[in-house]
Amino acid sequence: MPVIECDPTLARERLETAGIEPESGNTEHERWRAERGNATAVAYDDKVVVQGGDTARLEGLLRDGGGRAHVYFDGASRGNPGPAAIGWVIVTGDGIATEGNKPIADTTNNRAEYEGLIHALEVADGYGFEEVEVRSDSELVVKQIRGEYDVNSPELREKRVRAMELFAEFDSWSLKHVPRELNERADNLANEAFEDG
User: Fold this and answer.
1) Which helix (DSSP H) or strand (DSSP E) does residue 89 occupy?
2) pTM of the predicted protein model
3) Which terminal CB of the chain, N or C, has fewer other CB atoms within 10 Å?
4) DSSP state, 27?
5) How many CB atoms lie within 10 A of CB 79?
6) Can you tell me the distance from the alpha carbon of 67 to that of 64, in angstroms, rounded to the nearest whole number?
7) Domain 3-62 has what CATH class?
8) pLDDT digit string, tens, across residues 114-172
9) What is 68-196's CATH number?
């Protein structure tokens, strides 16, 4: 349950700018509360507490945002195709901004890798980062996105298009292949989602 130390009045203005209308709090201690998807933000005197599922988008609106982030992602499939999951980690100069994982529909390993990239970019965009440096141990995804490999699969072509749309949301971006040990946290999170799911 993320706790964001902030001025609740400024946080409310950020939400209203994004088209989210906060409501009155449920108790005398709550200044306001707002919902987006499955997440709820509750404002107190000097902080906002975000609870529920998929809190990243709501958190992104409440935080100052901006700046540069390193984005790590991974996707995994057991069976190829089979049960699949993704993991992501977003790091700034202050440390880990957010991380998470979730099971996804049965799919192949390559599709799971693309799903991991797409979700990580959506989270980074939700946080308001202006620049992203994305790292992955999936050579196929990295080289397809960069245009070094052809994308023969219609499903992967569709996912590449979606990823490129998300990259276009940032002022600048880079995508680099890294060894698995440098992507270990995202890899572990993806694998943990199999046990949690």
Assistant:
1) strand 82-92
2) 0.74
3) N
4) S
5) 11
6) 9
7) alpha beta
8) 999 999 999 998 887 889 999 999 999 999 999 999 999 999 999 999 999 999 999 89
9) 3.30.420.10
